[in-house]
Amino acid sequence: MTYQQFEALAMPLMIFGLVAFMGFIVWDLAKKSKAGRYGTLMLFLVLGLGVAAFVIKEVVIVVVG
Fold first, then answer.
1. What is the DSSP letter of 11?
2. Checking CA distances to 20, which of 5, 30, 44, 45 falls within 20 to 30 Å?
């Protein structure tokens, strides 16, 4: 396995791990702050838009590039 193959495999896995950890942090923040159902939804929605923007950017790079 070459370095490029390893990087192509490891990068998406590490990014997924980071996003999953960030989701846990948001869930824990909502739980500790007693945000309620609506507050928790808003936290995940707003912070999830950043993740969605990253995914969209990567898709656009693959499609255009």
1. H
2. 5
User: What does DSSP assign to residue 43?
Assistant: H
What would the pLDDT profile of 11-50 be if each residue is shown by its tens digit?
A: 889 988 998 998 999 999 999 999 999 999 999 999 888 8
User: Cα dist. 25→32, 56, 63 in Å?
Assistant: 10, 23, 32
Instruction: Give the dihedral sign, CA 62/26/23/37.
Output: negative
Q: How far apart are CA 27 and CA 44, in angstroms?
A: 8
Closest alpha carbon to 15 in 64, 54, 60: 54
Query: What count of other Cβ atoms lies within 10 Å of the Cβ of residue 1?
Result: 6
Domain boundaries, the chain: 3-64
